[in-house]
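We emphasize that the prediction below concerns an isolated chain of 120 residues; any contacts that depend on oligomerization or on bound cofactors are therefore not represented. The input was used exactly as deposited, without trimming of termini.
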Amino acid sequence: MIAELLAPAKIIFGLKGNFSQVIEALGKQCSIPGLAVQLRAKTSDHDDKRFSYIGDGIAVPHLRVDNIRVPELVLGLSSEGVSFNTHVVKIILLLVTPAEQPAHHLQLLQRVCSLLPAIP
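Result of the prediction step, given as a token string:
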């Protein structure tokens, strides 16, 4: 299921900037209108709660959004790393799911978090 959601056009190489700028760049790759604006509004005071750091330089920003039918994934890679709270992340996987599907959101989040640490 994860592979089906992550199309090649949804992979961004060479991300640079602060965490908010990276989140905005990832949001712009989604087909969800206005997602970058929603993400920017949520990053200001919820970074540590909304965006999970799962270790080994990997963060998984995730949120549920109204008025979408299917989940979306966008993968961002930064060779230099991006500062996130007290960590430096090099792999950022944005997960966006329909708001009315919280169980599916949790299932996808669990799958993503179990797969990403296996990346060398």
